[in-house]
Design goal:
This protein is mainly α. The chain has 3 domains: 41-196 and 525-556, Serine Threonine Protein Phosphatase 5, Tetratricopeptide repeat (Alpha Horseshoe), CATH 1.25.40; 207-289 and 455-511, Tetratricopeptide repeat domain (Serine Threonine Protein Phosphatase 5, Tetratricopeptide repeat), CATH 1.25.40.10; 306-448, no CATH class. It has 18 helices and 10 strands. A hairpin with a 5-residue loop joins strand 7 and strand 8 (390-392). It comes from Spirosoma pollinicola. It is found in: Cell outer membrane.
């Protein structure tokens, strides 16, 4: 079957259309058309490809658009958006996320719903167009190619619906949009679960494999991608429906590891799954293609660029996006006097420090030639300034040198090790020194040809190992879980490292399993979901966060603006 790299195809088609339009400017015969309808929109194969691509473009944006990333991370024990001397207070909205005290009137409760349903609506509209094609040869297509497109869009919609189920639980299953004038009724979580499962199972055999697509696999839903979504659905099934599907999850994971849905493999370096070579990485099960000159949503403001300390781009030598504005940082592991907090959750950086030979613990540094080392921005960050002199990243409030630390407080110009008088450490009392920053996707210098060109790795093969490990752990097979985890963890430590788990898995506990999920998938937009699955999202304590009064905040409220225009919807319990 002939395959296409659709994301490149759409760019080529757009340029071609512009050239055709320019060439035709000498023909002044006017043809009037008052509207484009479903009956005259799809005229060529290029039209079909454009229709197919539209929901993918929007869906890539939803990894951070509509506050989806913020809600997954800031509500957990991983990231924080504190009030930094007046910056990012924003009416206390991020503190409400941190404390799980959001209300239906908070804009992000509308925004996430609208962002994800925007994708569902676009995907459904495209499906109706594609399913309406009765003669694919008219578009120089085979039936198999058309079936492939339909299966990919159904899988994309299943990914969006799965996230809606995770966020809101009581959702609307949209299967038709053309001619509709109002939204449908809410489905129960079990109905939504069954719908998503059916969509994936029916689509899976019609999808291509990674191998059949070759270098063009990035951005395409494959059999492996659909199977991985089933893994996510089954791993969290008990949370969603009250009935566990860990056995089903284990079966799909085992099949994936055996190559049933395509050949995948782990990278040997921890950073390779996030680097500019990741579009062709065997660890990328599904990703959205990115590039500096086109789309790169993970590098934009709603996600990782707002995770950089102020002026940190000078340290990278990357100044194309400005000087950064730190919205996110890791929650601290120590108080202002450097004493470790006693709670078990949170403290993400110290969870790495538990295994001190972890290569990721090095300070992030660009090494030249599109290479880097380390994952954390910490301490002083030196660079050569415009005068050719050695400088260090400075505050915009001082401008004193910034020393980034695993603490939150008003350190201001205090040198490391200095005891400060103000002992307050909370969401409302932070400065620009407060909190460390992880850098998973590289920021190579502005003159590096591979800057900002990583794909966004939405699903990595490592997730399948960890999901199967959790299933084995829950079934009492700690040794089996340890082997799977170590298969991934080995790349994070030197050969023969004592940091690998013992073969019998005796070191594994519920807390260690949750900590290890946090280490491997730090800031990959899943921490809230993992905390809920392990039963500690509402009952747990972490930095400046006490347990919730009850469990109703395990799902978000449907925003009031959504309810105002959709009176058939009922608010989620507790709101």
């Amino acid at each position: 079957m002939k395959r296409y790299h659709f994301f490149n195809s759409i760019r080529t088609i757009s340029v071609s259309l512009l050239l055709v339009m320019a060439a035709g400017c000498t023909n002044l015969d006017e043809v009037l058309s008052d509207r484009i309808t479903s009956g005259n929109f799809l005229q060529t194969k290029d039209d079909v490809i454009r229709d197919f691509l539209r929901p993918f473009e929007h869906s890539y944006w939803t990894i951070q658009g509509g506050a989806t990333f913020m809600l997954q991370e800031d509500s957990s024990d991983e990231l924080m958006t504190p009030n930094r001397q007046g910056d990012w207070f924003d009416g206390g909205q991020f503190q409400r996320v941190h404390n799980h005290t959001w209300t239906p009137n908070d804009g992000y409760t509308n925004d996430a719903w609208n962002a994800l349903y925007g994708g569902v609506t676009l995907a459904t509209n495209t499906l109706e167009d594609l399913q309406g094609i009765t003669d694919p040869t008219r578009f120089d297509m085979t039936q198999a190619e058309l079936d492939d497109m339909i299966a990919e869009v159904r899988t994309l919609r299943a990914w969006l619906n799965l996230r809606l189920l995770d966020f809101y639980r009581n959702i609307v299953l949209v299967t038709k949009v053309k001619g509709e004038t109002q939204g449908g009724p809410q489905a129960s979580p079990q109905e939504a679960f069954s719908f998503i499962e059916q969509e994936l199972k029916e689509s899976l055999p019609k999808l291509p494999t990674r191998q059949s697509l070759g270098a063009n696999a990035i951005g395409r839903w494959t059999q492996g991608g659909a199977a991985a979504l089933l893994v996510r659905l089954y791993l969290n099934a008990k949370v969603y429906t009250g009935t566990d599907h860990f056995a089903d999850c284990a079966t799909v994971c085992t099949d994936m590891l055996a190559g049933k849905y395509g050949q995948y493999a782990l990278e040997t370096r921890w950073d390779a799954p996030f680097d500019y070579t990741n579009p062709t990485s065997a660890e990328t099960v599904f990703g959205f293609p990115g590039s500096f000159g086109l789309t790169h949503w993970q590098y934009d403001g709603g996600m990782y660029f707002w995770m950089l300390p102020v002026n940190a781009p000078f340290y990278f030598g990357f100044t194309d996006f400005g000087t950064a504005n730190p919205k996110y940082a890791l929650q601290p592991g120590r108080d202002v006097d450097s004493t470790e907090y006693s709670f078990a959750l949170g403290k993400p950086y110290l969870k790495f420090r538990k295994y001190p030979d972890d290569v990721r613990l090095k300070t992030y540094k660009n090494l030249g030639n599109s290479k880097r080392e380390g994952m954390f921005l910490q301490g002083y960050l030196p660079y050569i300034n415009a005068s050719g002199k050695t400088d260090t990243v400075r505050s915009t409030k001082g401008p004193y040198p910034l020393f980034f630390r695993d603490q939150v407080g008003m350190f201001l110009a205090a040198k490391p090790g200095t005891k400060i008088a103000d002992k307050t450490s909370n969401m409302n009392n932070a400065d620009q020194n407060s909190g460390l920053t992880p850098v998973k996707y590289p920021y190579y210098p502005s003159d590096d040809l591979n800057k900002i060109s990583s794909a966004y790795a939405e699903i990595r093969f490592a997730e399948i190992y960890y999901s199967l490990a959790e299933c084995k752990y829950r079934a009492g097979d700690k040794a089996g879980a340890a082997v799977l985890l170590n298969t991934v963890r080995a790349r994070n430590y030197p050969a023969g490292s004592p940091s690998l788990y013992k073969p019998d898995g005796s070191q594994l506990t519920d807390q260690e399993m949750l900590d290890e999920w946090g280490r491997e998938f730090l800031v990959e937009s899943r921490r809230r979901t993992d905390l809920i699955r392990w039963g500690v999202f509402n009952s747990g304590t972490w930095w400046d966060k006490q347990p919730d009064a009850d469990n109703h905040t395990a799902i978000f409220p449907i925003g009031q603006n959504v309810l105002n225009v959709s009176p058939q919807l009922k608010q989620n319990p507790g709101y």
